[in-house]
Write a structure and sequence with these properties.
The chain is 60% helix and 4% strand. With 281 residues, it is mainly alpha-helical. The protein is globular, with a radius of gyration of 22 Å. This is FtsH-2 protease.
């Protein structure tokens, strides 16, 4: 970093908060990418926007503007990402949303919702994991509510949600049915030994209970998310609409939308409330 000319708007503390878990080589790559991006635009110094793009490239891949989506796909992705962002911002224990985008990046991502932790965490409570599970399902449930249909866009989200739920049940003892016992997940551990015979350490009955408990966690999360998005449907529409207009929303814009919508809803509620005397009657 000392050999790079930085613009005055570069905030190193902000950069550190945006790169949790990055190793030294990862950070060096971000600096190099930011420098190259600034050079491509003939800038005299590397600005915060260059680092922003470099971090996006490191986390989600290069922009693929050549990947042209049709109008229905863009609307679907906008509501999908709006669902993720709204659920994450509605949960007390979710990392705050830093950016929401419907610009295709990398090999397969047609959009993404970027969450950044406010601090390093080494132990997570069950309530925090449940909130993360909700955020994973936000996109899928938004599609169900808005279009009364589903798409392939949630495949990776469902992989993550299923893996998280299974980890909670099998490794963390977070199932009232299974108690404090933990179980190996041979499918996840097999890796290059995928052709080796599984070495199960539990009965078929227990395996069935594990599957049922994983399904229960996912079903309960789905119900919570569905309730949230039905209650905040107007806000979901506003976020998706602005995404279609701008393609990228930062944290400040997203939070402003949420605050304005909640203020409007409070005003409507106050105006529609009956006078005190009428309520008492």
């Amino acid at each position: 970093m000392k050999h790079v000319k930085l613009a005055t708007d570069v905030d190193l503390t902000e950069l550190a908060s945006r790169t949790p878990g990055f190793a030294g080589a990862d950070l060096a790559n971000v600096v190099n990418e930011a420098t190259l991006h600034a050079a491509e635009l003939n800038k005299a110094a590397v600005e915060m926007a260059d680092f922003d793009e470099a971090i996006d490239r490191a986390m989600a891949g290069m922009e693929r503007k050549s990947r042209v989506m049709n109008e229905q796909e863009k609307i679907t992705i906008a509501y999908h990402e709006a669902g993720h962002a709204l659920v994450a911002q509605s949960r007390a224990h979710c990392d705050p949303v830093k950016k929401v985008s419907i610009i295709p990046r990398g090999v397969a991502a047609l959009g993404y919702t970027q969450q950044v932790p406010t601090e390093d965490r080494y132990v997570l409570r069950e309530s925090e994991l449940l909130d993360r599970l909700d955020a994973c399902l936000g996109g899928r449930v938004a599609e169900e509510i808005v279009f009364n249909d589903i798409s392939t866009g949630a495949a990776n989200d469902l992989d993550q949600a299923s893996a998280l739920a299974r980890h909670m049940i099998m490794r963390c003892g977070m199932s009232p049915q299974l108690g404090l016992a933990t179980f190996r997940d041979d499918a996840a551990r097999a890796g290059y030994l995928r052709f080796a015979a599984p070495q199960e350490r539990y009965s078929e009955s227990t395996a069935r209970t594990i599957d049922e408990e994983v399904r229960r966690l996912l079903d309960e999360a789905h119900a919570r998310v569905e309730r949230t998005l039905h209650e905040k449907r107007a806000l979901l529409d506003r976020i998706a609409s602005l995404l279609l207009e701008r393609e990228v929303l930062d944290h400040a814009t997203l939070q402003q939308l949420i605050d304005e919508t909640e203020t409007d809803a409070s005003s409507v509620t106050a105006k529609s409330a009956p006078p005190a005397a009428m309520r008492l009657a």
